[in-house]
């Protein structure tokens, strides 16, 4: 990989990671405070409407942002066309949710949902205003500016949410936090961005972009529905408190799985798109991204499963103990999220959104099985079934992306299997410490220190290229940080 592209990728990954820490990490820390002030049932009420907001958000974007990133010569008319389409669709969908709110409340047998839905629905229009400014920053692999925006939005919305919770506003504190975060994010993307829409709408541009984006829209809708449908099943067939336990476990899982996936997806897609017509460079860059990403992912996710119980009890209290079992199972399918993302990214880079869509349809048919376990057996069995379907989905994704970049599934597995085995061994050692009678305030740091020390010891002996690269990046970051402090 040429130095310029490597530097661009490294900087993009670094700032994107910081951006996710600012946006999700700070929000997570705020969530720890809110979890002590609110009840599982109040979290459950908010989770009941998540699927409707998530589906509507996918429709608003309609795959246009990825289509614009991939299009090398996208111009002013293209961006303005997509902007006005996004804004119009968001207004229509808000009207639909407003009218449908009473029916949603009846479905979940939760009257408060009507008013909550009608207020939180404004987030669709707010987000639509931010799509093009964000897309332009992503296309330029400029995550530094997005990091500043996320930091401002996360801190200010956290203050709003905690203030409302202390005021006894219950579930409305979660609504206020989410709305204020998206509003601040949108405002500052416009403040820092130079782009402004022109009063233009090109039917030709719309058709061209929609030809690629429509298949990603349908794929995204399928993916979103099946990501959020677990909450719908739990909300309909179990209690709001059980749904609250599930959502807290999911939020802990998201800190690593979804954020690592988001970082990889946001950076790898525009970078790999730049070399889509150079097969040798594309494969080499792709392999390096997979190997480095999965080293970090396996370590984080399996380590999280090992420390789940003391972590949850110490951070948010014993009332959230049922979330521990959920989280441990989630870690085993969450660790594959970046692999899914990278293989699907390759289909987009190569312009195969049609194959992307067909794959999503097949995988979602397979995913019906775990949902039935949730309806007729239990939540834990539903999550365990998802672990199985996640592995099946990986083999499908990697099988179809292999031909596009000459990187077969067997070769992929050979590349990431050593780091998986190391992380499995380390996490087993960490978990074994929980069999002692140590109090949680001592157990948790002991598990983390022992796990880190054992992992470094093993990797220093193996000297895997991906470990050496992560090690070099970490040392460089520490040196830069040390240099700034001395200055």
Quick summary:
The protein is 86% helix and 0% strand. By secondary structure, the protein is mainly alpha-helical.
Characteristics of this structure?
487 residues; mainly alpha
Structural description of this entry:
The chain is mainly alpha-helical. The chain folds into two domains: about 1-235, no CATH class; about 250-485, no CATH class. The chain contains 21 helices and no strands. It has helices at about 5-35, 40-50, 50-60, 65-70, 75-110, 115-120, 120-140, 145-165, 170-190, 205-235, 240-275, 280-305, 310-315, 320-335, 335-350, 355-365, 370-375, 380-405, 410-430, 440-460, 465-485. The longest helix is centred in the first third of the chain and has 35 residues, at about 5-35. The protein is globular, with a radius of gyration of 22 Å.
Alpha plus pi helix count: 21
First-to-last CA distance: 33 Å
**pLDDT below 50 for ≥5 consecutive residues: which ranges?**
none
Write down the overall geometry: globular
Cα radius of gyration in angstroms: 22 Å
Strand pairing plus helix content: what structural class? mainly alpha
| Number of domains as seen in the coordinates | 2
Indicate the percent of residues in helices: over 70%
> How is the main sheet built?
none
Question: Mean of residue pLDDT?
Answer: 83
Strand content: under 5%
Order of helices and strands: HHHHHHHHHHHHHHHHHHHHH
Number of strands: 0
């Amino acid at each position: 990989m040429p130095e310029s592209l490597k530097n661009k990728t490294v900087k993009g990954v670094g700032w994107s990671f910081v951006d996710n820490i600012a946006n999700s990490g700070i929000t997570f820390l705020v969530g720890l405070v809110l979890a002590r002030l609110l009840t599982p049932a109040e979290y459950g009420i908010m989770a009941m409407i998540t699927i409707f907001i998530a589906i509507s958000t996918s429709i608003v974007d309609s795959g246009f942002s990825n289509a614009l990133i991939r299009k090398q010569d996208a111009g002013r008319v293209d961006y303005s066309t997509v902007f006005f389409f996004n804004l119009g669709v968001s207004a229509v969908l808000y009207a639909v949710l407003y009218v449908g709110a009473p029916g949603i409340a009846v479905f979940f047998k939760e009257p408060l949902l009507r008013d909550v839905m009608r207020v939180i629905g404004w987030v669709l229009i707010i987000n639509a205003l931010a799509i093009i400014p964000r897309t332009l920053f992503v296309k330029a692999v400029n995550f530094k500016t997005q990091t500043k925006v996320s930091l401002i939005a996360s801190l200010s919305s956290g203050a709003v949410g905690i203030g409302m919770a202390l005021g006894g506003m219950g579930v409305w504190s979660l609504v206020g936090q989410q709305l204020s975060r998206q509003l601040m994010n949108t405002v500052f993307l416009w403040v820092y961005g130079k782009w402004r829409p022109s009063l233009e709408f090109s039917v030709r541009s719309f058709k061209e972009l929609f030809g690629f984006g429509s298949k990603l829209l349908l794929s995204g809708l399928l993916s979103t529905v099946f990501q959020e449908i677990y909450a719908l099943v739990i909300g309909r067939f179990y209690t709001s408190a059980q749904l609250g336990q599930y959502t807290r476990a999911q939020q802990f899982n998201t800190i690593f799985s979804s954020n690592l996936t988001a970082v990889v997806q946001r950076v790898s897609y525009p970078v790999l798109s730049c070399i889509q017509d150079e097969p040798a460079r594309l494969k080499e860059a792709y392999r390096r991204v997979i190997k480095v990403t999965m080293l970090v992912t396996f370590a984080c996710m399996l380590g999280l499963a090992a420390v789940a119980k003391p972590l949850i009890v110490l951070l948010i209290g014993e009332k959230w103990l049922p979330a521990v079992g959920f989280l441990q199972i989630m870690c085993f399918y969450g660790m594959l999220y970046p692999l899914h993302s990278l293989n699907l990214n390759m289909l987009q880079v190569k312009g195969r959104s049609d194959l992307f869509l067909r794959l999503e349809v097949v995988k979602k048919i397979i995913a019906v099985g775990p949902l039935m376990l949730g309806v007729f057996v239990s939540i834990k069995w539903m999550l365990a079934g998802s672990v199985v379907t996640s592995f099946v989905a990986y083999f499908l994704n990697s099988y179809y992306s292999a031909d596009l970049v000459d990187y077969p599934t067997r070769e992929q597995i050979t590349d990431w299997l050593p780091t998986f085995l190391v992380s499995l061994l380390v996490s087993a050692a960490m978990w074994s410490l929980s069999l002692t009678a140590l109090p949680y305030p001592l157990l948790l740091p002991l598990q983390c220190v022992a796990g880190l020390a054992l992992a470094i010891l093993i990797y220093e002996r193996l000297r895997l290229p991906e470990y050496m690269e992560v090690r070099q990046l970490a040392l460089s970051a520490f040196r830069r940080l040390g240099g700034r402090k001395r200055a």
